[in-house]
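mind reviewing both lines:
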Amino acid sequence: MKNQKMYEADDKMISIIRDNYNILQSLGSFGINLGFGDKTVREVCNEQNVDTYTFLAVVNFTINGYKEYDNADRLSLPTLLHYLKASHAYYIDFQLPFIRKELVEALDETDNLARRILKLYDDYAHSITNHMKYEEKMVFPYVQALIDGNANTNFDIETFSKHHVQVDMKLKELKSIIIKYLPSDGLHNNQLSATLYDIYNNEEWLTHHSEVEEEIFIPAVRNAERKLKQNDVSAKISSMINQTPNNDEQLSDREKDVIIALVQGMSNKEIADHLFISVNTVITHRRNIARKLQIHSPAGLTIYAIVNDLVDISTVKL
């Protein structure tokens, strides 16, 4: 029976299981092994390398639908990624074959309707497996790259979110057919009832899995994408700053004299006479100034001279 309460880091892990036995599989997906005695959630998570905040976010959400966690930045993408990968392995490698085995034992395979039910289940298993394999091929590697700081720019989580739909309609149809139309004797009825019970639990688990992806995983990935973009912008700005030359150091005193003369409206000949150098030397200085500053126009040089205190703005004809 579920206990509708909020669990916290200092609650004992065994208390959560006693209140909500159906989270046992979630423990395995997080990589948490049993045998933890009376330790708290925080102690167990720390010992088994699981992020406590993320564990509680998932557990409280799947138990009572609580999703108002107070800090999305604290959600651990590596923990969520491990949880989802392990959940896929559990569902594809164990749960789907287990339910099929139960169906085979509960049905008479010589009966045409029974064969159709198995075919319907196989179609469902194929659909859900393809859905999860897509995530493993496209989404999970993208998120891992995002964690590593070099995500693929040709994909984002919105692409996945727009097409993230539950694929359990065949399972609902399967339950309906078994309940409404499949006759059975006492023995097979017990087996079918037990199988239906497992299918309902299986359906509930899959719903929770899909909701965790939609309500916790996808928002966490969006947050990581946003932070990575911010870091990229900061890095580009920093790179631009680092690549911008320290103009005062790179310009020689003679080049500064040439800039001042240009700002004052002198021609190359006038500058040469003023500084007692040749016209060719003036031209060479101007070429070096343009290369160093990446400024080619008189207006640009005027602004540079004012900003760098080479001239007083009151003396410049703007």
Q: What stands out?
A: Residues 186-243 form the longest helix (58 residues). The mean pLDDT is 83.
